[in-house]
Write a structure and sequence with these properties.
Elements lengths: L2 H17 L6 E2 L13 E8 L6 E2 L2 H11 L1 E6 L1 H4 L2 H10 L6 E4 L5 H7 L7 H4 L8 H8 L10 E3 L20 E3 H6 L11 H11 L24 H8 L3 E4 L2 E4 L5 E3 L6 H14 L12 H9 L5 E2 L2 H8 L2 H5 L4 E3 L7 E4 L6 E8 L6 H11 L2 H7 L15 E4 L2 E4 L1 H8 L15 H4 L26 H4 L5 H10 L4 H7 L3 E4 L11 H22 L4 H18 L1 H19 L2
Parallel strand pairs: 2-4, 2-5, 13-17
Antiparallel strand pairs: 1-2, 3-4, 5-14, 6-14, 7-11, 7-12, 8-9, 9-10, 15-16
Length: 575
């Protein structure tokens, strides 16, 4: 072993000690539920690329997991520690990613993890499990691996047709703004997304401070989800039917493919959009230094007027009290928008997978936990949050009646009124909101149904659809002539569904991977600088510099790779 190798091992060992691996450590004095089959209490390290929280899962979901499996979940995520690739490399070098792993599995990434000996073969343990009703999806994913066995399970599986939107009553993306303030302005018409800026500026001028005294802004961002590009800039691209495939923006109907750095790309258009917004004083200046949780708080406080997702603005601000006063986020009509919709995945989403680490001391228990996550109860529990999600524990937040599922009074307050309600002691106390699952992992799509034939997601229940008679929703329905957002979009041909068919790209070479890492870091850095550029001249100079920099890194190599596979994926989708 040379000095360089020895030094790498020392550094890895030190970093892992900082990360705080517990390795399924056993403790005394913890009691599980009477029917729990596991005698020893363990702490499970969860290496989770999707999580926005780090530390022990607490609250009611943590209590449910403890009682059912006599274990705690210790979440470790690059979204908090930053440097996701570095964190992965450090843990991989030590031979232990974690006990439970949630990560990307496409484009050869699953094969790399198996080759490195980091994943446990679950095949024997999965025999007879209910999760095997998704056998086709599981088999398809693992057939991409040379070694025999079952090393991972895909997310967002579905039994629905791939051309059916996977979302519920709301799309994944959309221009959601404060409807009450939009109404106050007389419902101004907007031909393009750019027409939103003067509307938001008028809102800010009329309401310069929120009720808590903080200054208001049209937009607020965070860096945690940046990857091949600046995530906040990618979101409005989806409102025109585009989604990312590496450094390519591909239209849902297969009609267009763009390099994100091109002058005329929709990505550069949205960089211009946010630059202009910042020039108007509409962008929160603390965006670059805050995390998702802080951004969420600002929405909840009424400090921000625009949300690119329904599950941010609506879940944070649309409490029962606010809605009854006519206040809240709702989708507004932008005449040229064509919102990207993900079709259902018969073979699941391989962009997010779940697996067991090879060094896990109790893999059978973790396999049981994964099986539970895909059960009716597990989906209801893990998928529960504040808006547009599963309903949580039966008997507490919802109940089944003769004509279907209904939210209980407790459930209405927990799910529809901000989640500040206190949980019963048997669920560990604390509030509903602070106790929801932090895994951020969707086992099935939103429009999936349980074994009894009812949707997991409560906003699709007939009993809930007729529940909201607030001034906010009543006014929106009357103005938009639709009962739900998805109904409005489909009726007005403003939804583009990308069929949820499976496509597996060839494995990147090490050269391509290195180039991609360099390019995406540069694109992220320059994108943030461009949004906050001092003037137009500075913006254009930064754009030129970004284009020159990434091209010097070999950008065209990964562009060619991504373009080939983006087009090939569309041909599989039927375009």
């Amino acid at each position: 072993m040379n000095k360089k190798q020895r030094w790498k091992i020392i550094v890895c060992s030190f970093l892992l000690s900082l990360i705080g691996m517990t390795g399924c450590a056993k403790f005394d004095g913890k009691e599980a539920a009477a029917d729990c089959p596991y005698e020893d209490f363990i702490v499970v390290d969860v290496f989770d690329f999707s999580a926005n929280y780090q530390g022990i899962q607490s609250g009611w979901f943590g209590e449910v997991v403890r009682k059912k499996f006599n274990m705690e979940l210790n979440i470790i995520t690059p979204n908090i520690t930053k440097g996701g690739d570095t964190l992965l490399e450090v843990r991989a070098a030590a031979g232990n990613l974690g006990d439970l792993i949630i990560c990307k599995g496409e484009n050869g990434q699953l094969q790399d993890l198996v080759n490195a000996g980091l994943l446990y073969d679950m095949e024997d343990d999965l025999q007879g499990k209910k999760i095997m009703k998704y056998h086709d999806a599981i088999e398809n994913l693992n057939n991409s691996v040379e070694q025999e066995g079952i090393y991972a399970i895909p997310s967002q599986v579905s039994v629905n047709e791939p051309t059916e939107p996977s979302e519920g009553s709301e799309p994944m993306y959309g221009p959601y703004i404060r409807w009450d303030l939009y109404k106050e302005l007389g419902y101004p018409g907007m031909e393009t997304l750019e027409d939103l800026l003067p509307v938001l500026k008028q809102m800010q001028e009329r309401h310069p401070v929120a009720e808590n005294g903080a200054k208001t802004y049209g937009f607020s961002f965070f860096k945690e989800w940046d990857d091949n590009m600046m995530n906040a800039v990618k979101q409005p691209c989806c409102m025109y039917g585009y989604d990312e495939y590496g450094v390519v923006l591909a239209k849902a109907d297969g009609s267009d493919y763009q390099s994100i750095i091109d002058d005329d790309s929709v990505y550069v258009r949205m960089l211009n959009f946010y630059y202009e917004a910042n020039q108007l004083g509409l962008v929160d200046p603390k965006s670059a230094s805050q995390n998702y949780d802080r951004c969420f708080e600002k929405f909840a406080n009424g400090e921000i007027f625009f949300s690119p997702w329904p599950w941010l603005g609506k879940s944070a601000f649309n409490t029962t009290s606010n809605k009854e006063q006519g206040k809240g986020f709702m989708l507004v009509p932008v005449r040229d928008m064509q919102i990207y919709s993900y079709g259902c995945y018969p073979y699941g989403n391989q962009g997010s997978i779940i697996a067991v680490g090879s060094q896990c001391e109790d893999p059978e228990r973790i396999v049981d936990f994964i099986d539970w996550l895909y059960s009716d109860e597990g989906i209801m529990m893990n998928g529960a949050s504040l808006s547009g999600a599963a309903a949580g524990p039966e008997g507490l937040t919802w109940e089944m009646r003769e004509d279907g599922p209904y939210l209980t009074d407790f459930g209405k307050e927990a799910l529809l009124d901000g989640g500040e309600i206190e949980m019963p002691e048997e669920y560990g106390g604390g509030t509903w909101k602070t106790g929801t699952s932090t895994l951020n992992y969707k086992a099935v799509v939103q429009c999936e149904k349980s074994e009894d034939g009812y949707y997991y997601y409560y906003d699709l229940w007939d009993s809930v659809k007729s529940l909201d008679t607030s001034e906010l929703v009543r006014d929106w329905k009357e103005k938009m002539d639709a009962d739900t957002t998805m109904e409005y979009l489909q009726k007005n041909n403003m939804l583009l569904v990308a069929p949820g068919m499976l496509y597996t790209a060839s494995v990147e070479t090490s050269e391509q991977t290195t180039i991609r890492h360099q390019c995406k870091r540069a694109i992220q850095e320059y994108s943030w600088k461009m949004v906050f550029a001092a003037d137009r001249e500075h913006f254009e100079a930064l754009l030129d510099e970004m284009q020159e920099t990434v091209k010097s890194y070999g950008y065209d190599v990964i562009l060619e790779y991504d373009m080939i596979h983006a087009k090939a994926k569309s041909s599989v989708d039927g375009f």
